[in-house]
What we know:
The chain has a 7-stranded parallel sheet, with helices on both faces. It is built from 11 helices and 7 strands. The two termini are 35 Å apart. It has a single domain (9-273), classed as NAD(P)-binding Rossmann-like Domain (Rossmann fold, 3-Layer(aba) Sandwich). The protein has 274 residues and is of the alpha/beta class. It binds 1,4-dihydronicotinamide adenine dinucleotide (NAI). The site of 1,4-dihydronicotinamide adenine dinucleotide has 26 residues, from helix 1, strand 5 and helix 8. Residues 14, 16, 20-22, 40-41, 44, 65-67, 93-96, 120, 147-149, 193, 195-196, 198-201 line the site of 1,4-dihydronicotinamide adenine dinucleotide.
Amino acid sequence: MYNLLKGKRGIIFGALDEKSMAWRIAERVVEEGAQITLSNTAMAIRFGKINELGEKLNAEIIPADATSLEDLENVFKKSVEVLGGKIDFVLHSIGMSMNIRKKLEYPEVNYDFYHKTLDISAISFHKIIQTGYKLGAFNEGVSILALSYIAAQRIFDKYNDMADAKALLESIGRGWGYYLGRELKGRVNVVSQSPTPTTAGSGVEGFDFFYKYSEKMSPLGNADINDLADYCVTLFSDLTRKVTMQTLYHDGGFSSMGMSIDVMDAFVNGFDKE
Ligand code: NAI
């Protein structure tokens, strides 16, 4: 522990259970001295384990559907109130696709579902930032992060409309990065993470193969949830105050690879053979 976030106030969206990226990130930022509030949908609060996390971290849980401006306004107002000041960092760790859940392939997507995917998984990022900005709830130098996947740039079979949502999410990060940088010296970045076994991740058909393939392709292996939490701490801290408007690949090198000896070997001998 380095006290990198001492005195900082943050909002963490998207912790469902102990497998969630947001869960581990919430634990890590508190270890580094931050005070936080947690938010998720009323349903996730009822059926997930976020209450456990709230108790452990002494963090207030504020329900919100991240597509509702009214709910988000409440999250920011309450957070400023209970944390005793303006917000220094925000994590958007939210994603959902009904097309993926219903196994509708890309050529057959249902357009109501498609709108929902974009609204929940990408436009909510815009809405969160707009709400905090309009309320004047961000401190100067605020650092805002969302989580993405390399399917925003390259096609991964079965990643479906979530790939389009991730491309939009990364673009929204650049868009807001420009405005928050000018107005508040604020930073907005999107971390593109290795496949990670969570509820949302494992919901993508073929997840195990994505996971094994990128593990064998990446010289450092997949970045896990603890690596991600450490990386997010640095991005919320003052040590990275000129990093903004980026898609930051946190993937053990996967995004720069073409072929590795381990993948070649796996094609010959099988992926499960160690
Ligand atoms: P998760 O299932 O633990 O988290 C997803 C969260 O989104 C849940 O807490 C869920 O309640 C929340 N959510 C869904 N609809 C919502 C709504 N309308 N309003 C507010 N919250 C809502 O899974 P994970 O993997 O931790 O997902 C977090 C983020 O990381 C997502 O954006 C995901 O796409 C991204 N990601 C995941 C990877 C993986 O392999 N697991 C890889 C790269 C990025």
